[in-house]
Amino acid sequence: MFSYVIRRTLVAIPTLFVIVTAVTLLWPGAINAVFGESYSMSSNWGVSRVFFESVTLGAFAVMVLAGVVFWAVGARGRRRGLTGEAGTYAGAAAAAPDQGPPPGRL
């Protein structure tokens, strides 16, 4: 039981850090408002809030799109059974007939 609580806590703390960091990076000043501090996008970055948000969320959307593309490419491998533990493939390699060395190697 104690080990379970420690593991959950050790997972929760970094997860909270990631969430706070993401909110701070995507919406600067959001955390400042919670603590009653003012935040000016134009004085800190020299750009309007709309410009900053569009560039930041646009870059975020590109990263999410790249993740979806890699997930979709990996789906083909998952359907063909090419993912899993390394031990899974050891039996398949042993059962495959020996075809000699790869081309170009002696």
Task: Provide structural commentary.
This protein is mainly α and 106 residues long. Among the domains are: 1-39; 48-79. The chain has helices at 2-26, 30-34, 41-45, 49-79, 86-95. The N and C termini lie far apart (57 Å).
Give the amount of beta strand, in percent.
under 5%
The tally of beta strands, per DSSP, is 0
Helices and strands, in order, run as HHHHH
Terminus-to-terminus distance: 57 Å
Report the uncertain regions.
none
Overall geometric form? flat
Could you describe the largest sheet, including whether it forms a barrel? Answer: none
Structural class: mainly alpha
Portion of residues in helices? over 70%
Put simply, the count of helices is 5
What would the average pLDDT be, to the nearest integer? 81
- Gyration radius, rounded: 24 Å
Question: What topology does this entry show?
Answer:
Layout: H1 2-26, H2 30-34, H3 41-45, H4 49-79, H5 86-95
Summarize the structure.
The chain has 106 residues and is an all-alpha fold. The protein has helices at 2-26, 30-34, 41-45, 49-79, 86-95.
Q: Main traits of this protein?
A:
single chain; 106 residues; mainly alpha; 72% helix; 0% strand; flat
